Amino acid sequence: MIEANTPLLRLVRTFWPLIILSLALLIIVAIVDFTGDIILAQTLVEGLVRIVIVAALYIFIGNSGIISFGHIGFMMIGAYATAWQTCCPYTREMFMPGLPVYLLNNTHHFIPAILLGGLLAAVAALITGLAIMRLSGIAASIGTFALMMVFYSVYLRWSTWTSGASSVVGLPTTTTPWVGYVYAVITLAAAFLYSRSKWGLALRASRDDEVAARASGVNVFRQRLLAFVVSAFFCGMAGGLFGHFLGMLTVDSFHLSMTFITLSMLVLGGMQSLSGAVVGVVVLSFVIDVLRRLETGVGNFSIPTSSAEVFVGITIILILIFRPSGITGNAEIYWPFKADVSASAAMKRQS
Amino acid sequence: MKQRKKAPEGRSQADRACTEGARVAEQANGSGQTLEARQVSVSFEGLTAVNSVDETLHQGEILGLIGPNGAGKTTLVNAMTGFQLPAAGEVLLCGKVISSLSPHWIRRHGVARTFQAGRLFRDMPVSENVEVAAVSMGLSRKKAHAHAMELLEWLGLADRAEMPAGILPYTDERRVGIARALALSPQFVLLDEPAAGMSDLECDDIMQVVREIPERFGCGVLLIEHNMRVIMGVCARIHVLDSGKTIARGTPAEVQKNPVVINAYLGHS
Predict the structure, then answer these.
(1) Do A209 and B120 touch (CB under 8 A)?
(2) Taking the C-alpha atoms of A67, A155, A245 and A229 in order, what is their torsion angle to the nearest 10 degrees?
(3) How far is A285 from chain B (nearest CA, A)?
(4) B107 CB near a chain A CB, below 8 Å?
(5) Taking a C-beta distance cutoff of 8 angstroms, is the pair B223, B231 a contact?
(6) Is A321 part of a structural domain of the chain?
(7) Domain assignment of residue A320, yes or no
(8) Where are the alpha helices (DSSP H) in chain A?
(9) Per the domain annotation, does A161 fall within a domain?
(10) d(CA A346, CA A337)
(11) Plot region of A303 (φ>0 → left; ψ -120 to 50 → alpha; else → beta)
(12) Does B180 lie at the interface with A, CB-CB under 8 angstroms?
């Protein structure tokens, strides 16, 4: 009996962190769905979209060790590309008169639209990555920061396609908790598989020691570029989800604030761990939510406006000083059974 | 170690030419391939670290590269593995110039190296340290893992395969470095002071390992080492550098008696 279960157990063991993360999210989504609380559902969807973003960030940052400040730019590209296909059929020409005739006259279902949004973000990452991924360390990070500023400025001035400084409104709000859940799990699975693939392995080697990685045959530039493109794809999809969660888009929401909040989540949870990415989102989203409530006042008590940002900033500094590898210590959720008795232990638990 | 620009257009061409050339050479005389430094010079801001050095490493041999500190031994290895563009001269792999190609290309085409400082991937398990080299050369992760375990088994490290490389003791670190370099049997392996800081007993182990490399992997070994017992014990041929220049070459016995070599060592230490 134990023998017969071994291959399945091994599979479960390999994918353990992914299974636990997916199940935990499933339970949360199911509970919120059951209560029918709309405010709670909105907080949840926002959290799920952030999980997509942070898991996408993990694909590049966690494996390459290069902090990217540019990914929110890819998120914006995905968000607008999706909106071009799905937004407000009757007022699209008013918001975005410069769109080509095909886009003005045709509306796509949001699922393929989000996919195309992700693809456009990936193409943008490929083109820009060809230059930026030749850099290493802090120079690469600064390059991605500059990239984000470029994307931001272009979209802000490109008003015939993006409505510029004003908003695009009227996107169908199709990102329900279950839709968010499916995208979150797909992204987590992709991130998990990527870091365990041969490409992820080669990229992690370059993170630990770039010189030794080159000496081991790793084409560091190509591996970084691949991860950059893959993570931009998922960031782009997160943008599409985000637009269909809010029902509107503004260029301003894809700027410094979003960049730092999502990076903070990754750093807080543990940059080199996918479990850390999820833990970071959950913990920081919760903390920010509590602080926002306190800002508006609970009973007679309230804290000054923008305290949340200050608090988050201080938390990140403290984490970097006292626990630089984040809450999870860069580890994944571990297999809870002893290695040699895992089969029998699992059997006992089942019976 | 300065990173050079790679030459993408020359790459695939050189690739084909190299394997072609090797095949032709092998058919012609049955001899193995060679890694050759031809009049290689390297300078850093006017300081000449390696000065017109010639050497040819053949498959199946163990060549010792010795010299006092700062003689240019590691710099020569850097030049032969693509980490350092020579200021003059060229490096040839089976007759084709490779000195301007990137380190990963050179590794994939059969020239591997280790580092003095170990340079393991510290956050990764020991087995993955070796797997990195194997997957870079096209193996699937599963096959790479099996291959890595074989190498680690040979080096007596199989029981530490799952340990993070960063917590290994010094001597094991060196062995993992050697395993990583030997993944997928390169034609040439350049070992940079594998026995540095080891006890006599540990040196004996490393000597045993180095001696086994040529027959086990069919490759030529270039061994940089300060420990004379190791050098004299395993090398058939020795090349002596001092201040970037070749000052002697020959068998261990010849080199040991050479007054220039004795002077270079005593004069520096």
Answers:
(1) yes
(2) -40
(3) 29
(4) yes
(5) yes
(6) no
(7) no
(8) 2-14, 16-35, 38-57, 63-64, 71-86, 92-95, 101-105, 110-132, 137-157, 159-162, 177-196, 198-208, 210-215, 220-246, 256-269, 274-296, 307-322, 342-350
(9) yes
(10) 8
(11) beta
(12) yes
Chain A interface, best mutation among B104, B105, B187, by max A CB count within 10 A? B104
Average pLDDT rounded to a whole number, residues A68-75: 97
Is residue A240 a part of any domain in this protein? yes
How far is the C-alpha of A286 from the C-alpha of A23, rounded, in Å? 19
| Binary contact (B121, A205; C-beta < 8 A) | yes
C-alpha pair distances (Å), B80 with each of A145, A296, B8, B31, B128: 37, 66, 19, 21, 26
User: What ipTM was assigned to the predicted interfaces of this complex?
Assistant: 0.87
Q: What confidence tens digit (pLDDT) does each residue in B179-230 have? A: 999 999 999 999 999 998 889 999 999 999 999 999 999 999 999 998 889 9
The per-residue pLDDT for range A152-209, each reduced to its tens digit, is 999 999 988 998 888 899 899 999 999 999 999 999 999 999 999 999 999 999 999 9
Token pair for A264: 């903070």
Residues A109-130: tens digit of each pLDDT:
999 999 999 999 999 999 999 9
In A, minimum Cα distance to B141 occurs at A198
A331 vs B contacts (CB less than 8 Å): none
Burial of A110 (0-12, 13-18, 19+ CB in 10 A): buried
**Residue A38: what residue type?**
I
Domain B33-124+179-268 has CATH 3.40.640.10: no
A216/B1 CB distance under 8 A: no
Once rounded to an integer, what is the mean pLDDT over residues B103-117? 95
CB neighbourhood size of A112 (10 A)? 12
Q: How far is B60 from chain A (nearest CA, A)?
A: 21
User: Is B119 touching A (CB cutoff 8 A)?
Assistant: yes
What is the distance between the alpha carbons of residues A45 and A38, in angstroms, rounded to a whole number? Answer: 10
pTM of the model: 0.89
Between β-strands B188-192 and B111-113, what pairing exists: parallel, antiparallel or unpaired? parallel
Running DSSP on this structure, what letter comes out for residue A74? Answer: H
Is B103 touching A (CB cutoff 8 A)? yes
Which chain A residues touch B if contact means CB-CB below 8 Å?
Answer: 196-198, 201-202, 204-205, 207-209, 211-220, 272, 330
Total tally of structural domains belonging to chain A: 1
The C-alpha atoms of residue A286 and residue A213 are separated, in whole angstroms, by 39
> Which residues span the domain enclosing A115?
22-253
Residue B31 has pLDDT above 60, yes or no: no
Could you give phi then psi for residue A213, rounded to 5 degrees? -65, -45
- At position A110, the amino acid (one-letter code) is F
Query: Which residues, 6 or more positions from A96, have their beta carbon under 8 angstroms from its beta carbon?
Result: A83, A84, A87, A160, A161, A162, A163, A168
Residue B32 confidence (pLDDT): 57
Inter-chain contact B141–A212, Cβ cutoff 8 Å? no
* Nearest-by-Cβ selection for B104 from A208, A218, A272: A218
Q: Look at B123 and A204 and tell me if their CB atoms are within 8 Å.
A: yes
Write out the two tokens for A73.
């730019």
| B124-143 residues touching A, CB cutoff 8 A | 124, 128-129, 131-133, 135-137, 139-141
The DSSP result for A199-257, as a single string, is HHHHHHHHHH-HHHHHHTT--HHHHHHHHHHHHHHHHHHHHHHHHHHHSEE-GGGSSHH
The phi and psi torsions of A92 (rounded to 5 degrees) equal -60, -40
Do residues A83 and A258 lie in contact, with contact meaning Cβ atoms separated by under 8 Å? no
